[in-house]
Design goal:
- By secondary structure, this protein is α+β, with helices and mostly antiparallel strands.
- Helix 4 runs antiparallel to helix 5 and helix 5 runs antiparallel to helix 6.
- The longest helix has about 35 residues.
- It is built from seven helices and 16 strands.
- The N terminus is likely disordered.
- The strands form three sheets. It has a seven-stranded antiparallel beta sheet.
- It starts with a helix and ends in an 8-residue tail after the last strand.
Length: about 425
C-alpha cells in the first residue's frame, strides 16, 4: 500500500469509528502510529480520550443544568420574600416635580435580612427613604393646584398605611420570637419615631387643615402592641368629682383593651378604663374596681360617659346617651390626684410607661373629654346626640394641640354623628 493509500485508509477507519459513536458532527483526527500496527486497531485504541471527553462534557452539562435550576429556585424564593416588602413601591408617582425625580419601582428594602437586628435596620432605612419621598411630595404640592396635591397626599397615605402594617407586624413578630432580652430596643425606637413623624407630616398635608376644627379627629390603634399610644400634654387637676366621656369603636376580642389610663406618682391605677380577656369592662379609681355594663366590641361607634363623686364613691355609666348602670363605694373620699400622666391606648404599670401589649387598646377613639364635675343626664344625652349645646371638657378637652402620638397610632378626620357606623 503506497503512502497516499495508507493515509486514506487511516482516515477512513477514524471516520467510521467516529460515526459509530453518537457525537453529532464528524471530526478528522490525525494520529501517528507505528509502521507495522494495524491502522484500524490503532484508531480504536485512540478513541479512549474522545470517550472521556464526551463523558466530561455530559457531566459538566448536567452540573450546569442543576445550577441553573438552583438559581431559579433561589430567585423565586427571594421574589416571594421581597414581594410584600415592595408592595408600597408598586404604584407610580408623577414623573418629576420640584422636589426631585420619580422614585419608580426600586426596591428600597435592600437585600433580605438575615436576622432580627438586620431586619429592623432595613425597616428603619426604608422608612427614612419614604420620609424623603414625602418631603419631595410636599414641595411638589406647594407648586401645583389643590386637586393634584390632595390626590398625591391620598396616594402617599395609602403607601404609608401599607408600610406601617408591615413594619409593626414585623417588629411584633421579631419581639415575640426572641427568647432573651430585647437587644434591638434602640433600632425599634427609631422605627417608631419615624412612623410618628410620617403621620404628623401627612396630617399637615390634609385638605383644609387650616380651616378644620381642632377637635374633629379620631385616633386609630390598628395593632395590639406595647409601644403604640397617645399622651395628653398636661396633667389632670385635683378633683373630688368628675365626668369622662368619649367616642369608641372596636371589634377586638378578647377585650378591647385600655382606652385610657391616668397614673400619678405612687399610684399607676389612679383612673383607668379597661376591658381585657373575657372580663367585662372595668373602671378603676385608686386601684379600686367597678364593673361596667358596657357592650361595645361590635365594630360600631359608641358614646360612653362615666360620672363619679368622692362622696360615697358614687358612679354612673352611660352608653349612647342612656344610663346603663350605677354603683357606690368606688374609692370613696379619695380625691383624684394631680401631677399625673394621661395615656390613651395603654394601661400604665409605672408613671407614663410599663405598657403590656395584652392590655393595649385596639380600635378607634375620639372626643375624650374630662370635666371636674358630675354632668347631668341631659348634658350627657346632648353629647351622645351631637347636640349643638354639647360642651367640651373644662379640665381636658379633645383638641390636636393637647395630644401627642407615639409608635404609629394614626390621626384621621372625624365628626361625631356624621362619621359613625
Amino acid at each position: 500500500m503506497d503512502g497516499f493509500s495508507w493515509k486514506i485508509f487511516a482516515l477512513s477507519c477514524l471516520i467510521v469509528e467516529g460515526s459509530s459513536q453518537d457525537f453529532g458532527q464528524t471530526q478528522f483526527i490525525c494520529t501517528s502510529v507505528p509502521k507495522d500496527m494495524d491502522l484500524c486497531s490503532a484508531a480504536m485504541q485512540n478513541s479512549g480520550p474522545a470517550e472521556d471527553l464526551k463523558t466530561t462534557v455530559m457531566q459538566l452539562r448536567e452540573t450546569v443544568l442543576q445550577q441553573k435550576e438552583t438559581i431559579m429556585n433561589q430567585k423565586e424564593t427571594i421574589r416571594e420574600l421581597t414581594s410584600k416588602l415592595t408592595r408600597c413601591e408598586s404604584q407610580s408617582l408623577p414623573e418629576s416635580g420640584p422636589g426631585g425625580r420619580r422614585p419608580g419601582s426600586k426596591n428600597t428594602m435592600g437585600d433580605v435580612s438575615r436576622g432580627p437586628t438586620d431586619t429592623l435596620a432595613q425597616l428603619g432605612h426604608t422608612l427614612q427613604t419614604l420620609k424623603q419621598r414625602l418631603e419631595n411630595l410636599e414641595q411638589y404640592s406647594r407648586g401645583n393646584n389643590t386637586i393634584q396635591a390632595n390626590s398625591l397626599k391620598d396616594l402617599l397615605q395609602n403607601k404609608i398605611d401599607d408600610m406601617e402594617k408591615q413594619v409593626l407586624s414585623r417588629v411584633n413578630t421579631l419581639e415575640e420570637s426572641k427568647p432573651g432580652p430585647r437587644n434591638d430596643t434602640d433600632q425599634r425606637n427609631k422605627v417608631e419615631s419615624t412612623l410618628t413623624t410620617l403621620h404628623h407630616r401627612i396630617t399637615d398635608l390634609e385638605k383644609g387643615k387650616e380651616n378644620r376644627p381642632m377637635d374633629k379627629f379620631q385616633l386609630t390603634f390598628p395593632l395590639r402592641t406595647n409601644y403604640m399610644y397617645a399622651k395628653a400634654k398636661r396633667s389632670l387637676p385635683e378633683m373630688y368629682s368628675f365626668t369622662v366621656c368619649l367616642w369608641i369603636k372596636s371589634n377586638a376580642s378578647p377585650g378591647v383593651g385600655t382606652p385610657f389610663s391616668y397614673a400619678v406618682p405612687g399610684q399607676a391605677n389612679e383612673v383607668v378604663l379597661i376591658e381585657w380577656g373575657d372580663n367585662p369592662m372595668e373602671f378603676l379609681i385608686n386601684d379600686k374596681v367597678a364593673k361596667l355594663p358596657f357592650l361595645i366590641n361590635d365594630g360600631k361607634w359608641h358614646h360612653l360617659c362615666i360620672t363619679w363623686t368622692t362622696r360615697d364613691g358614687m358612679w354612673e355609666a352611660f352608653q349612647d346617651g342612656v344610663m346603663r348602670g350605677t354603683g357606690e363605694n368606688l374609692a370613696p373620699y379619695h380625691p383624684i390626684k394631680p401631677q399625673g400622666v394621661l395615656v390613651l391606648g395603654q394601661e400604665q404599670d409605672t408613671l407614663g410607661g410599663g405598657f403590656d401589649a395584652t392590655q393595649a387598646f385596639v380600635g378607634e377613639l375620639a372626643n375624650l373629654n374630662f370635666w371636674d364635675r358630675k354632668l347631668s343626664i341631659g348634658e350627657i344625652y346632648n353629647l351622645a346626640t351631637c347636640n349643638s349645646r354639647a360642651q367640651t371638657g373644662n379640665v381636658f378637652s379633645w383638641t390636636e394641640a393637647n395630644i401627642e402620638i407615639f409608635g404609629g397610632a394614626t390621626k384621621w378626620t372625624f365628626e361625631p354623628c356624621r362619621s359613625i357606623n
